[in-house]
Fold:
Amino acid sequence: MSLRSFTTRMVCQSRSWFRGVFHRARLEREMDDELGCHLEILTNELIRSGLSPVKAARRARIALGSTLVHKEEMRASLGLRWWDALWADLRYGVRMLRRSPGFTAVVVLTLALGIGANTAIFSLVNAVMLRSLPVRDPQQLVMPAWTAHNWPNGPGISSYGDCRPEKTSQDRGGCSFSYPMYQAIATHKDLFESAMAFAGPASIDVSGNGTASIAHGELVSGSYFGTLGVQPAVGRILEPDDEKPGAAAVAVLDYGYWKQAFGGSPSVVGRTIRLNDVLFTIVGVADAGFTRLTPGKAIDLWVPLTEIRQLGIPWGGHGADNGWWLAVVARLRPEISRTRAQAALNALFVNEALHGAKPAWKATDDPHLMLLPAEKELMGFRSHYGKPLMLLLGAVGIVLLIACANVAGLMLARGAARGREMAVRMAMGAGRRRVIRQLLTESLLLSFVGAALGAVLAYAGASGLAAFFAHNSFEPLRINLHPDARVLLFTIGVAVLTGIGFGLAPALRGARANMSAELKGTSATTTLRRRGRRFGLGSGLVAAQVALSMVVLMGAGLLLRTLDRLHSINPGFDTKNLLLFSIAPELAGYPKDGIPQLYAQLQRRLEALSGVVSVSYSSDAILDGGLWSGGVDIDGQASKRVHTQILSVGPDYFHTMRIPLEMGRALGSADMAPTERAAVVNQAFAREYLGGRDPLGVHIGDPNTPQWMIVGVVGNTKYLDLRSADAPTVFFPLTKGGATFEVRTATTPAAFGAAVRKVVNDLDDAVPVMQMRTQTESVDHLLFSERLVARLFGLFGGLGLALAGIGLYGLLSYEVARRTREIGIRTALGAQRRAVWVMVVREGLGLVIVGVAAGCGVALCVTRLLKSLLYDVRPTDPATMAAVATLLLIVGVIACSAPAQRALRVDPMTALRCE
Amino acid sequence: MTPGKQEKQIDLLQGTLDLLILKAVSLGPLHGYGVLLRIQQLSGEELVIQQGSLYPALYRLEHQGVIASEWGESENNRKAKYYQLTRAGRERLAGETLKWNRMAGIIGNILRATPEEA
Structure:
């Protein structure tokens, strides 16, 4: 058969099939008409040949045969038979499920929880990891990144978490480039349709639109929107001319920000606002569909990158030509391959890096430029959340397995009760396949109802989780949770697999119904079958649930221990009752010289608040997501350059933070004058870099900056995170730039937020307060992954445990009910009540122990996936394992006790009489 | 069609009903009973067709798109469903006819074979 005739046949058949399905009534009528017409013609002919009308009609009917059978075969000719059967099965299934509403509700709820949890986590995975860039033809976009054996010599590098962190420990890498390098890439019109550069976001002080507020602005090249193919929703987008020197200062708003901060008013175009105290004209709003470039980054507005100096943003030496501060994205020409473009750019880059005016590397550093697909390279928060999300996906998968096992157990028990029905069906000629199909249709029906309910739960759950993510992030975070085709397909796929997963075994068992025994009504009472049942499918399912719960609970236990260990780490300062907030007066147009006075005044006024113990400030807060590090020269000699953590602090800092002073003196108000040169180091610095020397009086610095003198040594503190070892740190006096204030309070710090904000506003209302948070919250943010996974593993483990407990309870209840007669006989023959109780509990606990043993085995294999999240706990920690096993046994005993109690109450006389 | 002739008639070979229906309707639109009559007439009243198997076959062929149907009026002003050949049906008929003739020739040759002296 040729392809053409095959396709026409396919088209004809599907058209005819759909006509049959959707115009069913007409089809039935036509079949009746057609057969009726045949009969009529035949009858008339027979009458004409001399038969009486009655005889003729009878003869004609005999000649044609049974119209019912013919119609059935005609339907089969149209391929409608399986559809009819399915439809009948579905109707029958709905009827059966409505007849046992309790069973249906339990199963649907169990499945809804299982499928809902999976859909929720998957929609997060989809939003964070899978969703493609919301721009035109994202697969055409490429992103350059460099690697070398060392950091480049000379340029300052600014990066903003856009791309994949460097993978190997020997090599350095990044995706920040200088403006001239970006231009060199952009002028390669033979390789790229266009290219753009971006940096940020920066926290920008917005005024001229109600009260001053903070927005997240990105500095971009004029070609930014053009390269991405993003259209304006209102007004215009940025254009290459906006980047030219001397161009007017303009800004484009994000759609969401426009709605939220400007009420979505179209008259916003042409309005002027002050950004960091510089006048900008709003020229347009970007398209609503353009929700992100880097995953998770929330951008409020875009300004041309040439405004960096005006805005006072220090990246790349305020956008100096030798600063590496721009991430670059280019759109490949369709006919150019990525490898070809990479070869061309690499040559350009290596030449510039090794033989340019200011070589950044030596040839031995082997610098390289790679051109990577932008969709892969733009990692953003993927690098952060990818791992915990994958772990969660694994955990919900296990929960779904538990739910399947649970429901399968229920179906088995119900199948036993329906054995008679199946036997009747098969006795009347239904084939085994037909019975299996009927039972599978019922389970698929259940799983789809469960999935529909689960989808609703999932949406609520995923929104809650996204809010939890955003609440615990140092940066503003945007997660797009709109359900899409991928999530829908996932849910349907899960529903189908689930339906088959829990329905197949009971269906096969149902089709094996022992016909004669069932019909005689003797099967349920034969004690012979009990022996075989002991380790039967139902028991295996319960043991499997226990084992799977064990795995998830083990993960939860390990993470809880990790959190416990992390919290017991001494950070070197008192994290309790400490309120933090940041201000950036310089960006708000505050005169530079006035800043030290502003800080001193603020410190005094805040200290005057009742309930405030003491106040200080620093360039960054420690354990707050930031880290500043750099090189200092011991004794001012370049040959003794060491790498150290750095923090600028105000007066009274160590006292406020409760960092102990070990030697010399702390920094006071007098040290804040620009002419003073006092610095403090921590013990790690003294120990590692100064050996046995007396640290006091040692000079540090480098030839460019004046010599600093160490006047004191303080205790070690954690800086970047709790896990890092204590590292050398230098504390300089803070004399310029933004600051984070630390307010030590006597009681709950969060309660002071409003009062503190008022003090700042009273002093100068043009200086907005940014990121009011407590130190405890910041530490929690640092432990986000651990807390997220611990919490959800705990939740899922608890869910699994509850399901397993219910499964065990159900199985034993069923067993006790089935063996009422046996128990009655035992009691009648003099068995102690205790012995009966022990018999039931032993059977239940036996299953739990088998499950726990299997769970331990599986846990030993899989818990090492958690390793990167654990701290000071081995993935196979025996104490955790023992604790989880004990928990499961306790739940096991509880689940067993009710059926066992019921077994005790069996009255021998009633039991013997009841059959 | 009358029962008396039944001894002389032979049953249809398996799988040939479709081919006969296609041939019958290729000569002009027919309703179901008409197809039956046409085949019987063409066979010189030699063939008997199970009346019941006719309609499933007609539906099958229409489902495959080789014949198409239309409601019209029968000789005695009754509503009847008329079938006729489609383009795909004509191709199918030609192909099947060719196949049938080849097969008949081959089988005929085999059956004519006589024992040879070794």
User: Anything to note?
Assistant: Confidence is low (pLDDT under 50) at residues 1-7 of chain B. Helices of chain B lie at 17-26, 32-42, 51-64, 87-112. Strands of chain B lie at 10-11, 30-31, 47-48, 67-73, 79-85.
